[in-house]
Write a structure and sequence with these properties.
Structural class: alpha+beta
CATH architecture: 4-Layer Sandwich
CATH topology: Double-stranded beta-helix
Oligomer: single chain
Strand content: 25-35%
Strand order of the largest sheet: 1-2-3-13-5-15-4
Number of helices: 8
Largest sheet: 7 strands, mixed
CATH superfamily: Clavaminate synthase-like
Length: about 290
């Protein structure tokens, strides 16, 4: 069957449902290229009814680049590139408030881009819905290309050469953590990195903002001035007209291009567990 993309929002191509793909059966180079084109055009792809196991999810994601090593070592399988975004640990116990895992889950409520605190950063992310509560919270995605396109031309010109510092410490600071909460090993190994404010998609030539909760400030500017600009641009890019809200169904896989999207979880306090299995691939080179 031919792969087909069905846009999910009126008057925009951002976010599309994928038809004609069975990830359990596997895909080849031609299908990978078609999906890459879909990601470049739509940003977020939804694959319905994908009844896959860990090996099949791993076989899928690694065709798009080097799999990213998961930071959290609380893994549910023998795959080092996975972790679960969930409400409980793998024994079914609620995550202890204040724990590292709990802080990571809370930080997902911030608008962010996966792996922006790394160099090279993450390029593509995929989530597979393994456990779904009766009323699951949506995940929201922001179109950073459309946000860029609506900026005044003079502002676009002023942003194109800017570089932004990104770090795990900036995003965790917004969750109430302090530098003293991090181990010496973490402070040594997770140094801030630097990315351009504006990225260009190699397939489409489209420009987009590249921001995240990890984005701290503009390099070379006074801290508060640079941070204020980052915050203003995130607020601009997450206006309702730029956002797709995804309602999860069991066994869906959602994949997105981190180079021109942001996303965030929404609050969930239900008693039913929820688990989405996460994996990603990184860029081949520094950005």
């Amino acid at each position: 069957m031919t792969i087909r993309f069905e846009p999910l929002r009126n008057n925009t191509t951002f976010a599309a449902r994928v038809h004609g793909v069975d990830l359990a059966a596997g895909i080849g180079p031609a299908e990978v290229d078609t999906l890459e084109e879909g990601l470049a055009r739509h940003g977020v792809l939804i694959f319905p009814d994908q009844f896959i196991n860990d090996d099949q999810q791993q076989a899928f994601i690694q065709q798009f680049g080097p799999p990213h090593q998961a930071v959290l070592k609380e893994v549910a399988s023998n795959h080092p590139h996975f972790y679960d975004i969930g409400t409980t640990d793998y024994a079914g116990n609620p995550r202890e408030k204040g724990s590292v895992a709990h802080q990571y889950m809370l930080a997902n409520l911030l608008w962010h881009t996966d792996g922006a605190q790394n160099q090279p950063p993450i390029r593509l992310t995929a989530l597979h819905a393994r456990v779904r509560p009766p009323a699951p919270p949506p995940t929201e995605y922001a179109d950073m290309h459309a946000a860029w396109e609506t900026l005044p031309a003079d502002m676009q010109r002023s942003l194109e050469d800017l570089v932004v510092e990104h770090s795990i410490y900036r995003s965790r600071e917004q969750m109430g953590m302090k530098m003293s909460d991090f181990s010496e090993e973490t402070l040594r190994s997770r140094k801030p990195v630097y990315h351009p404010m504006v990225r260009i998609n190699p397939r489409t030539g489209w420009k987009s903002l590249y921001l995240a909760s990890h984005a701290s400030h503009v390099v070379g500017w006074p801290l508060e001035k640079g941070r204020k600009l980052v915050e203003e641009l995130i607020a601009h890019a997450t206006q309702p007209q730029f956002v797709y809200s995804h309602d999860w169904k069991l066994n869906q896989l959602v994949m997105w291009d981190d180079s021109w999207t942001m996303h965030r979880a929404t609050p969930y306090e239900g008693s039913h567990p929820r688990h989405l299995r996460w994996c990603a691939v990184r860029e081949l080179e520094a950005v």
